[in-house]
Design goal:
Strand order of the largest sheet: 2-1-5-4-3
Shape: globular
Radius of gyration: 14 Å
Distance between the termini: 11 Å
Number of strands: 5
Order of helices and strands: HEEHEEEH
Structural class: alpha+beta
Helix content: 40-55%
Largest sheet: 5 strands, antiparallel
Length: 124
């Protein structure tokens, strides 16, 4: 794994309250570039594989509706977790982040992800 991705994971872990897990996945192939989980029972690569289907379904819906739109992010709110699927501007990869909803600040979490999202395009 590149130093950039290692630093990216560590920065999220240290700077996002309620951090549970993160992964970066290529949309076309489903390949995971990196993943990190604080909970051994939570597999972010497996979650990303399923969430890839969510991204593809939404892209198909956008196309079927004839919309000239791109996905910024997809927010999934569970009982005590928030899952964010943050798609790159060029649509080539997404960041999957899971946080504890009782500890995380959604605005700060999204702002932190946005800061890194642009950098990843140039680094991958």
């Amino acid at each position: 794994m590149s130093d950039f991705l290692q630093n990216f994971q560590n920065d999220l872990k240290e700077n996002i309250n309620g951090f549970i897990a993160v992964s970066v996945t290529q949309v076309e192939t489903g390949m995971s570039y990196c993943s990190l989980s604080l909970n051994p029972a939570f597999d972010p690569e497996l979650a990303s594989a399923y969430n890839l289907e969510v991204v593809k379904a939404k892209l198909n819906a956008i196309k079927a509706l004839g919309l000239d739109q791109k996905i910024n992010d997809i927010l999934i709110t569970l009982t005590d977790q928030i899952h964010i699927i943050d798609v790159s501007e060029d649509g080539s990869y997404f960041i999957y982040l899971a946080v504890d909803s009782t500890k995380a600040n959604l605005g700060m979490t999204r702002a932190t992800l946005g800061k890194f999202k642009k950098d990843i395009i140039s680094k991958l």
